[in-house]
Design goal:
The structure is a single chain. The chain folds into 2 domains: 74 residues, no CATH class; 70 residues. It has 5 helices and 5 strands; from the N terminus they run H-H-H-H-E-E-E-E-E-H. Strand 3 and strand 4 form a beta hairpin. The longest helix has 34 residues. It is flat and about 60 Å long.
Length: 194
């Protein structure tokens, strides 16, 4: 019985992540199909990819870019809509935009002596002088198994760069330290202030 139980647990560890991943992907595809009113599985996703690509192409055109800039400015001025729109836009730009912010993983030191704790995060701003916080940096610390996190304001000398890729660091943090990262390598350039 013990051997059968071990086989079952081993099989569960193999099948559960794969099945859950496929199920969540199926739910996402089904949701997008419903948005586009499609009864053919995957057709809504294909339509969404085509529409997003066309918007990207149009954004490269000078005339269309001007119209999109005007729409962007309008959305940025509307109350409440502004908060949602700018937050979502900034978050997406932080991950995949031209001005990525989650590309410098660091280890931040909190406390001293017996209360010394290290947290892993990403430097999102080198200078907070505009807030009257000279010598301070902003470090975003994501929660494990979540997209949420904390923003820490720390002295620059309490932050040191990690010798790892930003994607590996994010996977390690979000997985609660379970995911193994690639072997460390020297940072390509200055990773953090201080």
């Amino acid at each position: 019985m013990r051997r059968l139980a071990n086989y079952f647990l081993r099989g569960l560890l193999i099948t559960a992540p794969a099945l859950l991943t496929f199920y969540l992907c199926w739910l996402a595809i089904h949701w997008v199909d419903q948005l586009f009113g499609s009864s053919v599985p995957g057709l809504g996703v294909a339509a969404a990819v085509i529409v997003i690509t066309l918007v990207g192409m149009l954004a490269s055109n000078l005339v269309t870019r001007t119209m999109l800039t005007m729409a962007d400015q309008l959305l940025a001025k509307l109350p409440f809509v502004r908060l949602l729109y700018t937050s979502i836009k900034d978050l997406l730009n932080a991950f995949v935009g031209e001005h990525r912010r989650f590309n410098r993983p660091v280890r931040a030191r909190i406390g001293d002596g017996q209360a010394l704790v290290y947290v892993l995060g990403f430097v999102t701003s080198d200078s907070l002088d505009h807030l009257g916080l000279e010598g301070q940096v902003a470090v975003y610390v994501p929660f494990s198994y979540s997209l949420a996190g904390h923003l820490l304001i720390l002295p620059a000398d309490r932050v040191e760069p990690l010798a790892t890729d930003a994607a590996d660091a994010m996977a390690f943090i979000v997985s609660g330290g379970v995911t193994r990262t690639a072997p460390p390598r020297p940072p390509a350039g200055p990773g953090a202030p201080g």
